[in-house]
Amino acid sequence: MRDDVLGAGLPRIDGPRKVSGHARYTADHHFPGMLIALPVCATIGRGTIRRVDCGAALAMPGVQAIYTRENIGHIAALPEDSKLEIDEKVPPMQDDQVRYYGQYVALVLADTFEQARDAVRLVQVDYDAETPDVRTELEPGGRMKTETERGDPDSAFAHAPVAIDETYRTPIETHNPMELHATVARWEGDSLTVYETTQAIVNHRGVLAAMLRVPEERVRVVTAFLGGGFGGKLWPWSHSLLAARAAQLAQRPVKLVVTRQMMFRSVGHRTNTQQRIRLGADGKGKLISLQHDFLFHSAPAGMSSEACGEATGYLYSCPNLRVTGGSRQRDFGVNTAMRGPGAVPGMFALESAMDELAVRLGIDPVALRLLNEPELDESKGVPFSSRHLRECLQLGAERFGWARRDAGIGAMRDGDTILGWGVASATWLGMRRPAQCAIRLHDDGVVTVRSATQDIGTGTCTVLAQLTAHALGLDVDRVRVEIGDTDLPPGPVSGGSMATASLATAVAMAARHAARQLLDVAGREQEGRELALVEGMVKGADGAQPFADVLRHAGVEYVEGQGESRWSFKDPHAKSVSIQSFGCHFVEVAWQPAIARLAVRRVVSVIDGGRIVNAKTARNQIEGAVQMGVGMALLEHTHYDHRNGAPVNGNLADYMMVTHADAPHVDVTFLDHPDHALNEYGVRGVGEIGLVGVAPAITAAVYHATGRRIRSLPVTIEALL
Ligand code: MOS
């Protein structure tokens, strides 16, 4: 074991390739004879395609083929009981229905991008258009599912000395990773290779195989580098299926890069939510009743659940509680996970209500949360594997200078600027998922760790090298990481903040297994001796030898050890505890009423994410997430034209996101308490938790500065005037 390689802020080992332009992203792949594909997108939000006339487009120079429902062939839906993941369940171009604005209705293949783009404009599509229902107000009172319940929340609420009953809203937000979705598909005989921008190459292979009816062993998916994803690239979208099928039909490699405008329509978004929170408390702030009823939108082509109440059952101690959830269908494209799905909008509602309760009672919001700290996970009736929210809040308060807070509205000033301070808790599930990896010890002294996972930009590649080096007692530069290719042992999804915990488990097992294989080889040479692999040396009674020498001596090129992780919820030990990450954000906003300018100045985040494998990449996760939270609180909001369902700000000029000018100073601290529930390293993982709680901390700070309680995101300047 080499403890010095864990925790250290090791720079990303793939960093030099990225910043020097040597990293090949999906769209960087070129093959001889490759065609450029570009979809024709529906210009209605609901209705029927009457006719597609490709004549003029086909006559354009360079246009090689146009596929429509008539000639794309059968693309199968996944069976109901499939374990594979796709959000848009209706396969593309199989019927005449238009289910959302921007749905692909034809696919043009041309020699160049410009030719394809011009030809797309000439494809004439006639529709029977209907008016889509893209209302974002979601009607309560319909069918709701009870997610978790205890005690008698109704009567406890009715009798509570203090009650809060408010509805909170979050808008549709669109994922805008720098790298656009893209597919490069290439057939060799009856084998398909797809270069794809996906957070889950193994699932992507499975979906392509199942929906295109190709045996899985003849499909390979490669994602060498990703330029971000935020959940939008977790599961396959239609463009990938269409590109792969088109390449097969045209018998040429095909590249399809989704445009930024299409990114707002056909590759998911975070659903809007509408959440009623009812809190009942005694006069001191102790929660008596907590009810959380959340709604999100589903879509005609599929449904992705936004579990806003996920954290509500365990975050605070409360004897009477009920969480219900439901969806209302709207004519949007299908929504999907966006960083911290469920918990991020859910905690906006819950933590906003907690702040309202603190104000109502005149209690410090930190004290209110400390007062309601639970002894155990009251929703499951089991202890937490490791919960340090109290320490997060106390340390955060100290680092922020919270003790200097004057709770009066607008009471804190810096010249003409009014300062507002706010705080919120954060939490996100800790989980391990199925993952395999292999570790090879080579006769040149190099170690390779191999897993069909991908690095979304978070640092998975670097963390894998560190975990492997640690397990084998080697320097990190002895380890070569092979990821991003489904020919490798099936690795984890880059999602849910689960990749590191899953890989840590698999790596530890694979390292032990590899060492055994090596000692077997050595033992063959040294009959009957006690041997051990220590810091890369095979040690016996009569000395030590580098493992490379042992392998060379035996004429063995490499030995391989295998390891795997399984779902933690199926693991009896991990099941007996509640595994969650915790944290908090303290926020300072600056409000300049004279010029109506609101900015977030500084954020102090304290995160309890188990043991931290890489202080730098983990900190970057939280820093990035906090900036995303500023965008969520103040800027991000996809607007739709109610006549046709078109996003009206579906481009980077009109869809506002955080830029450097908006970015606050962020101070991140990790508690670094190991949590051994998921693996021997004590690693839980970070990523989504950095976003949870940022928005409600900001709106709490806005309230402190202005006296305006904003319950519908984003906070607009108009709402403060
Ligand atoms: Mo994340 S929304 O699990 O990619």
From TrEMBL:
Q: Where is this region: Disordered?
A: 134-155
Q: Where is the composition biased (Basic and acidic residues)?
A: 134-153
Give a Pfam family name.
MoCoBD_1
Q: Does the keyword Oxidoreductase apply?
A: yes
Alphabetically list the UniProt keywords. Answer: Molybdenum, Oxidoreductase
Q: Keyword Ligase: yes or no? A: no
Which ranges carry the Aldehyde oxidase/xanthine dehydrogenase a/b hammerhead domain? 20-131
GO terms, molecular function = iron ion binding; oxidoreductase activity
**What is the name attached to this protein's record?**
Molybdopterin-dependent oxidoreductase
